[in-house]
Here is the input.
Amino acid sequence: MRKLLAFLFATLVMAPAIASAGTCFLKQSTALATGIRLGPFVDQTDGFTAETALTLSQADIRLSKNEGAFAQKNDATACTHLENGYYRCPLNTTDTDTAGILLVAVNESGALPVWKECTVLPGATFDALVTNAAGAANGFLIAGTNAPITFTGSGAAMTLTSTGGNGAGLAITGNGSGAGMSVAAGATGKGISVTTTAGDGLSITPTAGSAIVATANGTSKHGIVATGGTAGTSDGIKATAGTGGVDFRAATGITVDACTGCSTSGGTTIMPEVAYVKASTSVIVEVFIKDSSTNLGKTGLTSASGGLTISWGRADQGNAANTTCVVAGATRGTYTSCGFVEKDSTNAAGVYEVGVPAAVLDTGADQAILTVYGVAGTTPTILPIALVDVGLSVLSDTLGTPINGDLATDIAAVKSDTASVKGKTDSMGFTGANINANTQATAATLTYNLTGDITGNVSGSVGSVTGAVGSVTGAVGSVTGAVGSVTGNVGGNVTGSIGSVAAGGIVASSFGAGAIDATAIAADAIGSSEIAATGADKIGDDVQTRFPANFAAQAIDSNGVVTSGGTFRKNLASQVFPIYLVNAAGAAVTGSTVSVTVSKDGGAFGAITGSVVETGSGWYDVNLSQADTNCTNCKYVATGTGGVTARPFFFRTAP
Here is the structure.
C-alpha cells in the first residue's frame, strides 16, 4: 500500500506543470517590455518547491508562432524572477509579429517544463477587445449608445445587404446639425459609389435639412459624379422641385453636362460671345466673376489672388489641353498680356478687365474660349470669342453710307450693274476656254488671252505677245524689260543692252557710210573695264584666249624677249638636276647616302619627297617630285655620308 501511494504521488505531483491559467492576448507586432509571466517553476525532484534562482537566457525561451517551428525568442533580454517561481520574460516586436497562437515553452534543468499559450491579435482587434471599452470609439458595439465607428478596408470597407422584404440595407439618422452620413473619398476614389441592377441607385428623403451635401476636394474632382442608364429615360441625376425651390440648383463642386430646366444660379458664368478680327493685338475684355455663395459679383480680386487662373482653348489646338498664362497686374484701360485688374468694385461689382494674350486671337482658328477661374469662393467665368476675317467696323467703313437709303437697295443696284457689266464683257468674246488658268480674284489683275484687234490704248504692262504685231501706229514711249527678239528694222535708238545678235545679223551692209565714227562712239565707251582679262563679255578675255595659258606669267624685256625665269618649271613633277659631291679635300665622294632638303619661298627647310640616284664619279641625280618644285624661289641643300661637304643650290622656277 505504501508503494502504491508513492507511485501515485510521483505520477500526479511530479507531472510537468502547465502554466496556462487565464487568457493571454498579445497585440501583433508590439513589444512587451514588462514581459510575459511564466511559471510557476518548481523543483524537478519533489514537484512543488519553487525554483527562484533559475537563469533563463534568450536561448532557453522557445517560441512557436501560429503552429510554426520552435525557435529561440528574438528579444535578447534574460528573464527575471518575480516571486514564488514566477518569472518575467520580455518579448519584442519580432516575437509578436505573427497573428495566431503563440506558444512559449521553457525546459530548464532542475525544474519541471513550463509553457504558455497566447493569442496574438491584429492591432484593431486587440484594441477593441482589450484597450477600448465596449461602446467607446474603436471598441466593441453594444446594444445601446456607441461612439462613432470607422471602417477601413482594401476593398469595400463594409458591405450591408438587407434580406428582409423592403428592408433598408443601411439606415442612418443624423443628429442636430450633423450629417446622416459623412463620406471621404480616397486620393483617386469616390466618396460613395452606387451601382444598381435595377431601380434607383440612391434615394434619400430628408425630414429636415439637405438630402445630400457633397464637397469636392482637389483638382478636377467632383462632389457628385452620376452616369445615366443606357436605355429609356434613365438620368444621371433626377431632381424634382419642391414647393419652395427649383428642381436643380448648380453650385461650386457640381459639373452639369446637360440639364433641362436647370437654374444656373451659383454655377459657371458664360459670357455673351464677342468677336475680334484674327491676329488682333492689345485687346482688353471685361468679364464678370460671381461670388459662389451669394451669386453676386465678387469684388476685391487682384492678380495675386490665390488660385487665380486664366486659360484659353482654340479650335485648332487638336488634342492639346487648354493653355494657361501667368497672370499679371494691370492698369485699367492699359493693355497688359494676361493682365487682370478690377473695373469698379462699387458701380460694377464683379467686373474685371483681362488683357487677352495675342496667341488667343491668332490666325488659324475661327473660335476661342477664354476661361477665368480658380479663386476660392468664386465660380468659373467662360468668354466665347469668335475670330473673324473682317470686323464689322471695317465692313461698315468699306461700305460707307448707303447711297440709296438702305443697304438692301444698294445691293440690288450692284446686282443690276453687275448684270450690265457681264453683258458688255460677254460681247468681248471671253469664254472659259481662253481665260488663263492663273486668273486672279481681283479684277485689276485678271489675265486673259485676247484674240482680235485692239483699237484704243493699253495702259499697264503686257506680259507677252505671241505672233507678229502687224504695225504700231504712233510712238512707243519706252519698253521696260527684255525684248525677246526683234524681226525687222529698229528705226530709233536702243537704250540698254542687246542680249545677242544672230550669226550674220551684222554685215557690211548693216552699217551705212559713217555709221561708226568718232562721234558714234561716246568718249570712254571702250575703257579699261571693257578690256579686262576676265568675263566672257570683255575684249581682254577674247585677246587672252589667243595666247598660251601661261602667257600672263611670262616676263618680257624691252626687246620683246620672253625670259621664263629659269630652267625649272614650278609645281611640275619628274624634273632632274645633277650634283657633284666632294669631301673637304676636294676629292669626289662615291657611294654616299645623300639627303636633300628644300626651303620653299623662304619657308623652313624640309626633306624632299623625291629621290637621289648615284650616276658615278661623284655625280648624283636629284629627282624632284611635283611637291618639291611647288615654289618660285626654291633653295636646296644636299648632304651625304663619306665626308661630303654640304652643297647648297638655288632655282627660280618658271610657271
Observations:
- The CA atoms of residues 434 and 449 lie 6 Å apart.
